[in-house]
Amino acid sequence: MQLSDLENLKIAVVGAGYGGAAAAKALSLLGAQVDVYEQASRIREVGAGIGLRPSTMNRFREWGVFDAIAGVTSPSDYFEILTATGDPIMKEAWPADGEQVHTHLIHRGDFIDALLGVLPEGMVHLGHKLESVEEKGEGGAILTFANGTTAEADLVVGADGIKSVVRHQLFSRQPPVFSGEHAYRTVISTDAAQGMVVDDNLRMYIGRGTKVYLLPLRHRGQVSFDITALDPDGTWAPQVTKEDLLKTVEGFDERLVAITRDLDMDTVNIRAVYDIDPVDTWHTDSVVLVGDAAHSMLHHQGQGANSAIEDGGALADALKQADSLKEALALYQATRKPVTDELQHISRQGWTAEEINEVFPGQKPAAAGQE
Question: Is residue 365 scored above 60 in pLDDT?
Answer without folding.
Answer: no
